[in-house]
Design brief:
Strand content: under 5%
Structural class: mainly alpha
Number of domains: 3
Largest sheet: none
Distance between the termini: 102 Å
Shape: extended
Order of helices and strands: HHHHHHHHHHHHHHHHHH
């Protein structure tokens, strides 16, 4: 601070007599030197700032960390919604919520036990969902890897440490954790989120409360539920007694999806009626106003588009919801939309499930292709006499097609029919029974069947019953 000159009217105080010249020497110890060195390494703003500045900086940093974790969790959830089947997506959200909640710091053992139970239940639910495609399988493998590698409940499943005491398991898990990233983007997003959450929590035992809550609340929001800490059983939706009890999850998902669609549809309709149509029907409206109105209309139109597309993806919990899907599809001219094939496929899957024909359009492509090839081979040599090498190559091709039928498990009635028809051909072993894999409407087959014993006729009657239930024409199958 600069020296201030005295005013002339101040009383001049005489200086005191000089004192002995005593010097105090201060020698810095090891602790002081360490503090000095550490302070020198800090940024200038931090080193020279006031206490209030430092507290404010820490608060901003904490808020930025929570925002970062929330955005990373949202990215994971959005990609999961895009890639996973509806049932697997719902199960993944439940597992993510429970696992992140278990990994977050808690105060009492009772609370920890309850979180463990919720996490275990969520894992069982995810395990019971049948995978519909590759990404569903990857999510299951990710959770299995986390449990098997003895990771934290919320991972990460990456950089698994090798332990020679337990054989090759750890090496296999380490290789699996690296391989998953090549197949689907979901494991990489999950592991990146988990690693960053542990880093920002500054702990190896549990997520900090702000970080853990940011992850859990995002999963809870995606599920359309309150946070795990506040949820009670009374908040669950009541499913009508007439519904299949295994449709509880799809029923809740349907209610949320339909509410989202209704809100988007009514908002778009009201905007079109009150603003959009009147704006473009009014002459001399400024182009800037028209552009603004059109832009908002496009936003609402896309919101409706996304809502109805997601509604089609939800498995219909009953025939009533299937009827609603069909009604919306017809009213919105769904066949003209870009996602029409996906919507039609999902509606067909619903219809097949209610008709007890299986939950998939066709998962026995390999079986049915082998049966079709077996039928073509038979029909190509019908009435032809083979010799030598030609005969050997024919039976080699036949054996190859029948090996596919033998080695692959059927998952649809069509696949079961293909197997039974080939088995009937060989089991009966008559000239007429060869037609069991061909056109069964030919008189030769009908006459031979009529002359056969009761058990042969009974076996073929069972095949015909299955074909009728599945809506399959035996004469046309494989043709």
């Amino acid at each position: 601070m600069a020296t201030q000159f005295k005013h002339t009217d101040f009383t001049n105080i005489p200086t005191l007599a000089a004192q002995p010249n005593i010097r105090v020497a201060f020698i810095a110890g090891e602790a002081t030197a360490a503090v000095h060195d550490a302070m020198a390494k800090l940024p200038a703003d931090t080193r020279d700032g006031t206490l209030d500045d430092l507290v404010w900086d820490q608060g901003v940093a904490a808020a930025e960390n929570v925002t970062l974790i929330q955005s990373m969790t949202c990215a994971l959830v959005e990609k999961a919604q895009e890639l996973l089947s509806p049932r697997m997506y719902s199960a993944f959200l439940r597992w993510g919520e429970a696992a992140s909640y278990l990994s977050t710091i808690f105060e009492t053992d009772a609370d920890g036990d309850l979180r463990c139970q919720r996490n275990a239940a969520a894992g069982r639910v995810l395990g019971e969902v049948s995978a519909e495609h590759m990404h569903d399988v990857i999510i299951k493998m990710l959770v299995v890897g986390i449990e098997t590698a003895d990771c934290s409940a919320f991972g990460p499943f990456a950089d698994v440490k090798s332990n020679d005491q337990f054989g090759c398991e750890q090496t296999l898990l380490r290789g699996l954790s690296a391989d998953l990233d090549w197949v689907s983007p979901l494991p990489a997003l999950f592991n990146e989120l988990s690693c960053r959450a542990w880093q920002l929590s500054n702990s190896s035992s549990s997520f900090s409360l702000p970080i853990g809550s940011a992850i859990t609340s995002t999963f809870s929001f995606a599920r359309g539920l309150d946070s795990a800490e506040q949820r009670t059983p009374a908040g669950s939706s009541q499913m009508p007694a007439s519904y299949d009890r295994f449709m509880g999850g799809p029923f809740i998902s349907w209610q949320r999806a339909y509410s989202r669609y209704e809100e988007a549809h009514h908002t778009l309709y009201a905007y079109d009626r009150d603003i959009y149509s009147s704006t473009f029907a009014t002459p001399n409206v400024a182009e800037s106003v028209k552009d603004s109105v059109q832009e908002q209309f496009d936003v609402l139109l896309m919101a409706e588009h996304d809502a109805v597309q997601w509604l089609y993806r939800i498995p219909a919990p009953s025939a009533s919801e299937l009827a609603i899907k069909l009604k919306i599809f017809v009213e919105m001219d769904g066949y003209d939309l870009t996602y029409a094939p996906e919507a039609i496929r999902q509606i067909t899957i619903d219809a097949r499930r209610f008709g007890r024909h299986g939950a998939h359009l066709q998962t026995d492509e390999a079986l049915l292709a082998a049966f079709a090839a077996r039928r073509r081979e038979f029909e190509a040599i019908e009435g032809v006499e083979l010799h030598g090498h030609e005969e050997d190559t024919y039976f080699a091709r036949v054996d190859a097609t029948e090996a596919v039928l033998m080695d692959n498990a059927a998952t649809t009635i069509e696949g079961v029919l293909a197997k039974l028809r080939v088995a009937f051909l060989h089991q009966t072993g008559e000239d007429w029974s060869d037609l069991a894999i061909s056109n069964t409407k030919l008189p030769k087959f009908a006459d031979g069947l009529a002359m056969s014993d009761m058990y042969t006729r009974l076996a073929w009657a069972a095949i015909e019953d299955l074909a009728r239930i599945a809506g399959v024409s035996l004469a046309e199958q494989g043709a």
